[in-house]
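Lab meeting, item 3. Inverse folding demo.
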């Protein structure tokens, strides 16, 4: 099963792309709640390039590496990758007037409920939107 989350961001697509792809930005938005953080991000944004975004609870109780390999990259348009567990993800950047619609589609994993996964990924996307729109 695939799940899609989306948001519309009031910014130029170049800014949205930069904030999504540059480690200096990723560490500021890549977490689902204020109790979590992303202390490091490595991002080799090219086909067969790897990424590793570290996510940790601020209290140190748990953490994990979100990792994968890019399969397709079209600047300001599309990013596709395969997570280390084999699931596929596609992110589309769609320009509409003065906004960018960001659509993120991912294959659900079998451990957590689909709705729980959707809510978690949407929360990260909402953090991303807030981060981009707060940058001048």
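The presenter then showed the designed sequence:
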């Amino acid at each position: 099963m695939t799940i899609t989350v989306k948001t519309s961001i009031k910014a130029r697509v170049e800014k949205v792309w930069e904030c999504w792809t540059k480690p200096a930005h990723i560490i500021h938005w890549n977490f689902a709640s204020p109790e979590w953080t992303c202390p490091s991000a490595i991002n080799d944004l090219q086909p067969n390039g790897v990424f590793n975004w570290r996510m940790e609870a601020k209290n140190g109780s748990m953490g994990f590496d979100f990792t994968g390999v890019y399969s397709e990259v079209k600047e300001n348009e599309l990013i596709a990758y395969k997570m280390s567990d084999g699931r596929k993800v596609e992110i589309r950047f769609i320009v509409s007037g003065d906004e960018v619609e960001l659509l993120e589609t991912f294959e659900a994993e079998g451990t957590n409920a689909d709705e729980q996964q959707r809510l978690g990924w949407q929360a990260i996307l909402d953090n991303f939107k807030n981060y981009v729109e707060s940058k001048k």
